[in-house]
Amino acid sequence: MSDQTSPVAIVGGTGALGSALALQLAKAGVNVRIGSRKLESAEEAAGRVQSRLDDANAPVSGHVNEDAVSGCEVVFLTVPFRAQSENLTNLKNAMTEGQILVDATVPLAAAVSGKATRTIGVWQGSAAQQAQEMAADGVTVVSALHTVSAVTLGDLENVHEEDVLVCGNKKAAKARVAGLIELIPGLRAVDGGPLEAARIAEQITALLIGVNIRYKTHAGIQFTQLPDREWQTPS
Ligand SMILES: NC(=O)c1ccc[n+]([C@@H]2O[C@H](COP(=O)([O-])OP(=O)(O)OC[C@H]3O[C@@H](n4cnc5c(N)ncnc54)[C@H](OP(=O)(O)O)[C@@H]3O)[C@@H](O)[C@H]2O)c1
Question: Over 90: is that where the pLDDT of 229 sits?
Fold first, then answer.
């Protein structure tokens, strides 16, 4: 199950970030399963991706979340923070040992009617660590994609040239996720360290939202002076 074209699920794939990710991964030839709480919404979202790609045979399909994740080595979680625990609870019996859960949720204060330029404290340290605590035994959480705008990601004309921090405790899982991210033209996956560093990556998103409001844009982040580095591939 470790080749780059094995199916990938996106829980919350009907939303802004998830559908943009589905579009880019399907364009890259990845078999994408869009997950939703409603089958009809997932199928509609899959159809939208196929029409954006002008390809009725593009490798994307719609499923209820629990079916979407079944058998997928990599599962992206792109739901609002306020819905993260509900979705993880629903997935608890659907996900199994060996799967990778890529958490993109950001604990923005907007989840409790606060500002999107602030985050709220999460007892475990970050949304990603909360996901790891809630995930089924043997599921490895990797944190990524927080600083990538759904608007730019969903724009097939956009030249990205931006970095994506990937945090996690297992190098092989991070490498697998990095490989998928780097299938998207212009995105470079940067090793952000252990899962606990997700706390910082998530906070950067709130800062970035403020910058983007002031500059009226959808900027991402880019590190300078990073040498090329091979990701440690799964053994
Ligand atoms: N938007 C961005 O540019 C961006 C960038 C980086 C990170 N993020 C993070 O990525 C996550 C998703 O952001 P988004 O903007 O894509 O969110 P969104 O469009 O508001 O929602 C994504 C999907 O979450 C699903 N969902 C599951 N349970 C839900 C509930 N109880 N209430 C509402 N929706 C629920 C919905 O799918 P179904 O109804 O089909 O189940 C919805 O389509 C957030 O944590 C956000 O902070 C977003």
Answer: no
Is this structure's pTM higher than 0.90?
yes
Q: What are phi and psi of 176, to 5 degrees?
A: -60, -45
Q: Side chain identity at 67, as an amino acid letter?
A: D
| Pocket test residue of 17, 112, 115, 221 for ligand 1, highest count of atoms within 8 A of CB | 17
Please state, in angstroms and rounded to a whole number, the distance separating the CA atoms of residues 69 and 181. Answer: 18
For 10, the token pair is 């996106």
Closest CA to 61 of 121, 13, 125: 13
Least confident of 2-6, 201-205, 213-217: 2-6
User: What are the pLDDT digits (tens) for 44-67?
Assistant: 999 999 999 999 999 999 999 999
E strand map for the chain: 8-11, 32-36, 60-64, 74-77, 100-103, 140-143, 162-168, 187-193
What does the alpha-carbon distance between residue 50 and residue 61 come to, in Å, rounded to a whole number? 9
- Distance between Cα 224 and ligand 1 center (Å): 30
Q: Which residues line ligand 1 (CB under 6 A)?
A: 12, 14-18, 36-38, 41, 78-81, 83, 86-87, 104-106, 108, 145-146, 148-150
Looking at 2.60.40.10, 3.40.50.720, 3.90.1150.10, 3.10.129.10, the CATH number of the domain 8-215 comes to 3.40.50.720
Tokens of 163: 């970095």
